[in-house]
Hints:
With 488 residues, the protein is of the alpha/beta class. It is built from twelve helices and 17 strands. The protein has helices spanning 6-16, 27-30, 60-64, 67-78, 95-108, 124-143, 187-197, 218-228, 245-253, 268-274, 280-296, 318-328, and strands spanning 31-34, 39-41, 53-54, 154-157, 203-205, 232-237, 258-262, 303-310, 332-337, 367-373, 382-390, 407-414, 420-428, 438-446, 452-462, 466-467, 479-485. A nine-stranded mixed beta sheet has the order 3-2-1-4-5-6-7-8-9. Strands 12, 13, 15, 16 and 17 form a five-stranded antiparallel beta sheet that branches. A three-stranded antiparallel beta sheet has the order 10-11-14, with no helix packed on it.
Amino acid sequence: MKMANPFRLFKNAIRKAVQPKTYFCDHLWTSISVRVSGEIEPCSCAPNNGPLFNILSEPVQKIWNNEWFRDTRRFLLSGKDGDVFDCCRICPVSLEDRFYLSTMRLRFFEPRLLHSRVLKPASNHLLKQKHENYKTLLKILRQKTDVINAMPVIANVDPSNVCNLHCPFCPVGAGEIDHQPRGYMPLELYERIMERLGNYLIYLELYRYGEPLLNPDIIPMLKLASHEFRIRTSISSNFSKKLSDAFLAGLIESGLYRLTIAADDVEQSYYERYRQGGDLDIIFDNLERLLRLRKKYKSPYPKIIWQTLIFRFNEPRLDRIKSFVKNLGVDVFRSAPAYIPSHEDYADWIPFGEGQRGKAAHRPMFISDATVSPENPLPSQPLRIQCRVTNYSDDNWQPDHGDNGSIRVGIKLLDSDKKLLGEMGRINLLKTLPTQNSVILETKLPAPEKPGKYFLKLGMVKENHYWFEYNPQIQEIPALISLIITTK
C-alpha cells in the first residue's frame, strides 16, 4: 500500500483548521535548533522566547531532557489551553494529528532514502546507528513520553544571522533579532556540533534567520554533513547575491540535496515590495548558471525549488509566476501563505484567499445577518447592533470568562474610506456555543459624535491573542454595516 505524502497531509490539516484546537508542537521530540553562537533554541518558530542552552556545555541528550524541556513536553502532552510561545497561538494542528504527522514525516526521511548518486557510499555502521536511533524515536513518539532516550533526527543549524535584504516581516530584516554575536557561525564550531549530532541526523536545514550563502564556509559545512555524515541537506536562500561559477559548482559538489530560492515574483516592481534590497536580475543570472553547471556535472542535485510567499499584491499572479519559473528550469514551484503580523496596519498585505497552486482557500464568515438600528441615527444616539454568530471551528466556544482568551464579537468603527477610526466595543457570549451551531447576539452602543458616513466592522476576536481576520491560519471575512449619522 502506497504511503500518503506527509507534507500533503500536513497541508490538508492546516487547510481544514478554522481555529486552533490544542497547542502542541513535535519540535521538542524530533528536532533541534542551533543558533550561530551554538546556543540551542527551545523552539524554531519563536526567536526571542524561552531559555537558551549551549550545545557544547554538556551532552545534547542531557540538555534535551533537562527540567525545562521535560516540563514543556508535559504541558504540551496535557492538552491544556495555553501558550508556550507566541507562535503557539496560531498553531492549527491538534495533539493527535501532530504526533501522527510527526511519525509520517520521520518515515519519509528513512535512512534508505539517504542514498544518492552524488555522495560516496556510507559505512554500514553509520547507517545502522542512524536507523536504530530513528526507530527509537518513533517508539517514543507513539508512547508520548516527556523523557527522550534518543537523539534528534532533524536539525536546524543557523550559519548566518545577518542578511543582505530587508524584508519587513522578517525578524532579521525588521531589526527585531538581538542575537549576539551578529555574523556567521565559525567552521570550527560547526564541526564540533556535527561531532555531537552528525551520527544521528537524517535531515539538516542549514538556514534560519539570515542569508546562509553569506557565510564564507558554507560549502565546507555542506560537504561535512553530506559526505562525512550522510545527512540530507537543505538550504533556503534569497539568491540575490552575485555568485561565481566556482561557488555554484561547489554547491553541486557539496552534496546539497535541496536549494530553495525565496522570491515572491518575477517582475522587479512586485518582487521588491517585500524582498527589499533584492535584485531579480542577479537571481536569474545565478539560476541560469547553476542549471547549466548542474547539467555539465550530470547531477540531479541540488533539487531547485522556487518558493513564493503569497501576499495580496502577488496573489492574482501566481499562475504567471509559476509558468515563468518552470520555463527557467526549476524543479519545483511552491507557493505558501506568508506570515503577516496580526495588526490593522498590515491588513492590505493579507491575500483574499488564493491558496496552494492557485486553488481558492476557505475563508470563513463567522458573522452574518448583521444589522444596526436606526440606520440613520443622530450623533451619539444609542445604536442597537445585532448579528448571527456561527461556530465553524472544531471546538465549543465557552461563555465569557474574562479578558484573556475569551471569544467575543469585536466592533470597529471605520470612516467612509474604510480606514480604522477605533474600536467601539464587544459583544460577549452568554452561554456555550457548540461547534456548527449559531446564536443571535446584540448590544447597544452610542453612535459617532460627528455627522457623516461610517462603517461598522464586526469580527471575531480571541482576547489578548488575535483577531480572527488577521490570524494567517483563519483569515475570517468580517461583516460590514453601513452607517450614516445625520443632523436631523
